[in-house]
Amino acid sequence: MSLISKLMVKPWLAGGTVATEDSLTEALPAAKIGLWLFLCTISGVFALFMVAYQMRIELTTDWVPVPKPTILWLNTALLVLASVAFEWTKAAARQKKPAGIRASLLAGGLLTMAFLGGQLLAWNELVGSGYFLAANPANSFFYLITGLHGLHLIGGLFVWTRTTWRVFAGYEVTLSIELCATYWHYLLLVWIILFGLLLST
Amino acid sequence: MAYVAIADREAELHEPKTFIGKYIWSQDHKVIAIQYSLIAIGVGLVALVLSGMMRLQLAFPNEFAFIDPHNYYQFVTMHGMIMVIYLLTALFLGGFGNYLIPLMCGARDMVFPYMNMLSVWVYLLSVIILMASFFVPGGPTGAGWTLYPPQAIMEGTPGSDGGIVLMLVSLVVFIVAFTMGGLNYVTTVLQARCRGMTLMRMPLSVWGIFIATILGLLAFPALLVSGIMMAFDKLLGTSFFMPAMISVGEPNAYDGGTPVLFQHLFWFFGHPEVYIVALPAFGMVSDILSAHARKNIFGYRMMVWAIVAIGALSFVVWAHHMYVSGMNPYFGFFFATTTLIIAVPTAIKVYNWVLTLWQGNIRLTVPMLFAIGFIFTFTHGGLTGLFLGNVAVDMPLSDTYFVVGHFHMVMGVSPVLVLMAAIYHWYPKVTGRMLDETLGKLHFWLTFLGTYSIYLPMHYLGFLGVPRRYFATGVTEFIPESVQSVNVGITVAALIVAAVQVVFLFNLFWSYFRGKPAGHNPWECTTLEWQTPQTPPVHGNWGKELPVVYRWAYDYSVPGAVDDFIPQNKPNDETTGEPHETGDAEGLHS
Amino acid sequence: MLIAVVVVLLVIGTVIFHFVSPWWFTPLASNWGAIDTTINITFWITGVVFVAINLFLAYCIVKFRYKKNRRAHYEPENRRLEGWLTLITSVGVAAMLAPGLLVWAKFVQIPENSAAFEAVGRQWQWQFRFPGTDGVFGQVDARLINAENPFGMQHDDPAGQDDILIDSNIVHLPIGQPVTALLRSQDVLHNFTVAQFRVKMDLVPGLVTYMWFEPTKLGTYDILCEELCGIAHHAMRGKVVVDEPADFENWLAGYPTYAETLAVAAGDAAAGQAQYAVCAACHGMQGEGNQTMNAPKLAGLNGWYLRKQIENYQAGIRGTHKDDIYGRQMQPMAATLVTAAAINNVIAYIETLPDNPAPATISGDVTRGQRLYRNCGACHGARGQGVWSVAAPRQAGMSDWYLVAQLKNFQQGIRGTHPDDGFGWQMGLMAEILHDDQAIDDVVAYINTL
Amino acid sequence: MSTETGQVHPISLYLKIWGLLFILSACSYAVDYFDFQGYLRWFLIITFMWLKAGLIVSIFMHMAWERMALVYAILLPPMFLMVLVGMMAIEGGYTTLTRILFFGPGSAPIVH
Ligand code: HEA
Ligand code: HEA
Ligand code: CUA
Ligand SMILES: [Cu+2]
User: Fold this and answer.
1) Domain enclosing residue D18, as ranges
2) Are A9 and B200 a contacting pair at CB < 8 A?
3) CA distance B293 to chain C (A)
């Protein structure tokens, strides 16, 4: 039943029966719905930054594009690998292979930290060559957007820490792992879009 | 039915043992609702006092030594911001959303109780940060609740140092709190409804809160983004919104940005925000009208569609706040059109409220009085909105007291009347006691008549051209002396209305101990929250078994039924095919 | 029951109030009658809806009030009725929207024959610029703005040389000529509103906005700023005088072009010394002021402020009020400086005088004064140093008894109320926040500590 | 109407999608390479961006296997955002125009 036809139901007609309808989100556990909603919300945040970016670039006299440190490519690769690692963890969890879970989960987290470290290096490199935050709107946006993306990953790492701890303590964590994987894929996607945007301007 | 299983996860219900677990770090949605409400009402009273101070200055300019332009603008700003965000948004969604969603959907609790608990404490934190700004050097920000840069972060505006920063921080924290709560409300509605509670059987209150929360989740990011960028401009010297300009005669380092971008982002949030406070009110008032008129809500499906349509449309009307802001003037055509279109679904709601009363059997209880008051004030305020929405008409009226009159009529009193109606209506469920009726009527009459006499004249000041956000009008050649007497009248009314809120608070307090015991369903309502086995409902809401829903929320005065209402969880009699005889929902009150 | 009666009474009351209330649009003075017409259409449509809905509401409340034995009618929905209502509403909405959009279409299109002038706003003053004989405005740059170049003109733009600069809150416009107001802000958002013209628009830094109108009635109208722009938002006022074209030309001719402002020779302090001899009699050889003569300290006062005050005295804007005893003494003295060059010379000389803080003679509650000074500092500077862009003079280290006297003058309308005074009324509005003499003493005592 | 959980998708599907993504990215760069200007440029860049995002969301994040409602929820808000994006592009152009007109060519954008 599509949403539209659901909204067309005349609810007063079925009085006395336990009318059923399949849930809009039947197959998913609540936590997944919650995560999806959250992703919608932060997509709003990132998208609005991009709106601002695009408008600001349109009207500026002083836009000096930031050089994109090569390390960013390496970072991108790291984040892709992290994402793959989480996918791997998911598979391991589905096949109930604890060793696989542990290894890949750790790998995912460490790769993410490496990514964050790499981003810091990129910042460092830019600051070193005189591209300060407030010197130019291009710089401002670069730091702002990468910083925000990094913050979201750090938030993810908190959850990752908890999950890892629970894995090693032997709890059942399949759901958490799936959530992490989704979140990481999402942030990878955001990063690719952001990076593309930064590169193309 | 996947969701039933989720709704029934008793094992996961966190049973509190200690006092602290029960009332402070509680994960029970009802306790959290009450915590939200108390904080919101508390901070709302601050805003109320601030409005009193503003009115004193406007009526008796320069009589009170403690009001000067510096703190007048701070009062205006804090009054507006607190009322809109920290009172109404928090009370409708955090307070009533929390209380009603699980009970009306037949769930044991929100789906993420722990996050729900965090939400209220983070909200408290945001309120504390906001209040702290009263105590930093320079005081809170005085930039207007719209916080337009460059002004908000430049010298010459009160609180342009500490005040604005704390305001932005507080807003960010509020958004975090709201997001934690909001994810809960939406997911609970999607996932935790009890058996038989299809989407179209949900009471309109739930619909209103549900859609409003979705609006919030999508709109608050715009505030977050603009807030973060403004904080960067202020603290780190970036130029997102700041063009080249001077500041108190000296050049500064900004260059290239544009304040119009902030306004677009702000109103992309700001307009949905006004519907965030309006939609729950629309929903709750529908339920109250229907229950007390003993009649089904008229045109239920249209009401649902209208809520959804208003919610969706509210994202494409934002720039009607910017007709005279210097944006590309051709936008005016687009936004005037969308803005007036939004009047159509809203009009349908108004018609259906009145048509619900038509051929009803109206009990003029206190909640009903407030609900009727709402219809009156909302119609008035909505219609003045049509003046402002029509771009050419907005030009002479924008930034005058006409706008102040408009938004107080739709926002400063209509949803507030619904809140009060809702408190009178649901208080018996929350506490098990009725609120005192005589005091309630006193409260209603003074609030209703008082606010109307505050806001009606404001429109006429606006026609005259009296600007808003003016500390004093001084001498102008077109504003006659008589305006001063209007202002005095408004202020007197405002002070009376403010005073009568004390009666209300007294009533809330006194009835908690001395009120008439309410029984489990004093208004004889059909919706699930009135069918709980205990009143007030205990942790977990439903005793051993979750309710099962057999009908929509509005089976009032069904032809052939014995009682004039049939609770949602009441099955038809197996033999006759008719609803059971008694009004009591069996099986639940053993 | 009562509520039904009250609703009816409120409807009747509102309608009566609408028709008898004296608070209504000020008479129109521009070509925008169409806006008023649209408003009237909107009024009729919404008025009918308002009355109809609420009377029906009241009727329902009475007719269907609770009776024990009655059952409400069970009717979940009525598609036909709802359909009709939707249709009627849409028609009503369209009937308001269509004329509104037509008016707006007229507004966004500037007519061919319109003349342009520029209104420049900055915290809390107005300035105006006319394009001069070539009809083209010179380009401007916010980064060039300072006390010598208050408009931020680009020096090398030929189009700007003949621009006429009006550094005053008062502007004149010719009647019957469509004009486009180009609006520019030098700092924060402001708004240009003349209630009688009906149109308004914000001034946005980093952007030039516009609106157009045709003044149709002679007279003087208030310009109000209707976009919150800081602490003195309500004191940011100007005047527009609608003149016969000839009078307008006369008025405009009285103002210098940009090239002329550049050409004025810098003051010669040596020449000024001779002229200062007259002043020294009262203000002291070192410009240190003399309380017994009621002559304030001049040394250290901002040059642009000195010039403006001398010009005000000369033009009879200051020192002509019948209660302004000392100002009336100053007025003939100012008249001795016959030429602009003479004024410049004197100012140049005064600027060379040693600036020693005047002795403090006023005492008061400094903490209270500090709280009050939050308001003053926005214009006069946090250290009371004076800020050219707000035209607010220096206070720190100046004769404190004189500040007190002037504040009282402002409060009593002795100063700042002359109709041609483009700046004084602002201070008049501000002086009102000092509630009593004690408050004046307090704030001046605080100024003494700066 | 229930969907089985934990379904397994053929690797080949993923590979195909990767391929598509590469092609789309190439298109994005082509926009730069051919130096399209103005609204066309933004239109193309954003279209490719959304196509990419759509693919990733639907395949890698399993959206294509989710329920209708979620699809609505994920598609509607971007539409509003697109309105905002479009309006902001126009607004940016308008602002630049007045800047060039009144503040001189020095204010013209020097990039793109
Ligand atoms: C709850 C809050 C709320 C609600 C519901 C509304 C509802 C509406 N508002 Fe309001 N508005 C505000 C809160 C709200 N507003 C606030 C806070 C501000 C000021 C912010 C600030 O600047 O500080 C504001 C400002 C504001 C402006 C900007 C004015 C300016 O600054 O110049 C405009 C302009 O278009 C506007 C329009 C409307 C319209 C068209 C509606 C419509 O939705 C109204 C629809 C309702 C009806 C129309 C009534 C019912 C209909 C009928 C009974 C039938 C009608 C029949 C016919 C027309 C035939 N509002
Ligand atoms: C919900 C929103 C809300 C509410 C309830 C109010 C209530 C009041 N407002 Fe407010 N007001 C705003 C929102 C609101 N306002 C906003 C957004 C602005 C714009 C700010 C800006 O320009 O930046 C504004 C600005 C504003 C101005 C314009 C100032 C200026 O431009 O210079 C004035 C002037 O008279 C004013 C007066 C009042 C008065 C007298 C009351 C009341 O006192 C009216 C009477 C009281 C009630 C109707 C009872 C309400 C009770 C509570 C709020 C407390 C507790 C609740 C419970 C117990 C349930 N307000
Ligand atoms: Cu300038 Cu308000
Ligand atoms: Cu709006």
Assistant:
1) 1-65
2) yes
3) 8
